[in-house]
Amino acid sequence: MPVPFDITDFRLFVNVAETRSLTRGAERSFLSVPAVSNRIKNLEDTLGLRLLERSPQGVTLTAAGEVYLQHARVVLAELERLTGNLQPFTTGLSGQLKLVANTTAITEYLPPVIGDYLATHPDVRIEVRERLSDDIVRLVREGGTDLGIISGNIPTSGLQSVPFVNSSLIVVAPLGHPLLAEQDVWFGQVLDHAFVALLEGSAFQMFMTRAAGALHKPMTIRVHVASYDAICRMVAAGAGVAIMPKAAFVRLKGQQQIGACNLRDDWAVRTFQVCARDLDGLSSFAREFANLLIGHYAPDAERR
């Protein structure tokens, strides 16, 4: 007897699996926790399989749950693609575009493109999530997002990716700071000083913590803040030095008493890429966003 699969079950299960929590999955699905728990139990009873292991710490996927999640994502992605491809023929359809990007892409490169895109696509909703680049590649491969925006030397085998802009990380310090006496410094030198940094959960700060760990040196953080703007203000006030994208520094430095120097480390110069499992196979509205992003920055890629 065929199993009656349900689109609502697919969406609900993906939300629970991605958050690893019935409570957060329920919030994302706009349902109560008991309703979510009952729905998943009914799904498991119908399939005759256990999909989730429940514990006080949250939920984990069983092997069967991993398979169900993979196929649920594929089905939902195909539905979004169908919706997008039907849009030219009707005014009543709306779509959702899922993007996953790292911190710098979200703060520096996506805002103007998203603004232009939504002006011409008012019926499309955009969901943007922040992750590290290697996590983004994994989500794209698994069908957890339509497009990923990554940077650095991250393997993307099996995916299609197009570079659209180059970016560099720089050291920011108060005017007169010893680090600014040199035009280029190594990250290891900077680690001898106290830092102003983004919040611990941000993808950018996780990247920097990994870089410090690779040198087996601690990153002494005096202040955690929520934005690059706050970083500049704290650095100007003498709270510490910082690492940030050059694009953000140029945008925010204004009249503040701060300066910058370059990092010598290879990872400090990064190429940003947009990637997907199949760019040509995306829904029309996702493909149009990718083309808009590439076209917006590609002519100036060497100057950023």
From TrEMBL:
Record keywords: DNA-binding, Transcription, Transcription regulation
Residue stretches making up the HTH lysR-type domain: 5-62
Source species, domain of life: Bacteria
Similarity field: Belongs to the LysR transcriptional regulatory family.
Protein name according to UniProt: HTH-type transcriptional regulator CysL
Organism from which the protein derives: Cupriavidus numazuensis
Gene name of the record: cysL_5
